[in-house]
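Handout, section B. The chain below has 68 residues.
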Amino acid sequence: MLDLFVGSGTTLVEAKLLRRNIIGGDVNISALARCKEKCDFEYENAGEVKVYKGDRGTWTSRRTAASI
């Protein structure tokens, strides 16, 4: 799953609980910190949550550069 505007992190938490992997991002640093705190819990067979700062263009550039 992909959440481009993580905000308070509800979608990230629900994806983890539903055993879905999710990538979330936001340009707001405080929103990202809040999301990391909310997703920092143990749950059996939980999905993987990755959080990035920036917009989709930033993520695409990083991924392309990393894969070259």
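Note. The beta strands are 2-3, 22-26, 49-53. Compare this with the example in section A.
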